[in-house]
Protein 1
Amino acid sequence: MPRKHTLGFISQDEYRLIAIVTNLKDYRFTFYLNQALRMDMVHYDDIAYARTGSVMCTYPWFYYHDHQIHTSYYLIGNKHIGGPMLATIKEADYVLLVKSPIHDDQVKQLVAGIRSIENVVTAFEVQIQTIKDINSVLDTNELHELEQLTDA
């Protein structure tokens, strides 16, 4: 009998989203982010995403998993000639997606740490429920993570 494969439901409650505005290039920004937040973000293949009615675009994708607190961090570029990945926050150059049910105080600490980086104009939390097509973005991110980390 053939096996039936199903995709699990991705809960938005597991995620927090921080929008970041800066003129720094991704590799430079990630270097400073790693220092400020004491992380070890690593660049993987760019993530491919097509907004509704748009062509497929690729965006820089960085990943870090903190094994001590069981939290995954994804830094994703939001800018492309074909349009931003998240049109709702088109002013953001990057988004930091945090996968873990973390507390508001921890999010405030992350935002403060990001704002402390020179050349960061601003960083702010975005309520994930307000993002159009967020489920599609989360699904694409999960699949990209599986592809990247199983090949590594």
Note: Confidence is low (pLDDT under 50) at residues 4-9.
Protein 2
Amino acid sequence: MPQWDATGPISTIIAWAEKILYIAVAVLLVTMSAFVIIQSVRDLYRLDLSTSLTADLAIVLNDVLFAIIILELLSTVVAHLRKGGFQVKAFLYIGIISSVRRILVLGAQLSANAKLPARAFRHGILELGVDAGVVLVLAIALLVVRSRGARLPSVARATREPEPTV
């Protein structure tokens, strides 16, 4: 079986194509976060102050936290373009933010629905507990990664040295 030439023209083309695609993803993430933030501002502006604000604010909070998640993904893409490799800390942060987002939104929805059936309320409380457990596990994983100062090894790149393993 022929050996892959890491310095050949095909490797160079693939490396450039990868960078171009990452830049396209970054542009899409910026665009998406801008749309989400604009929609959040519109929703906040259109709040009906004569009704219960909890449900409406939960929607706005959900959108704002979603924008933060998109921006964290953007920072991961930018970090990959700058340093290469898989940024494990960034994905742990994204997971924590996503779980906390779900906890906050679900908590607001549960408190806004005073006439929620007992079964649906128990289901919501169970989901809150599971999400809290996910946050705890991800926070512990983040502490372990930070204490070791480790990064997961990236897939071997044709033009880069392999990263240290965990």
Note: The helical segments are 9-45, 53-83, 88-112, 118-148.
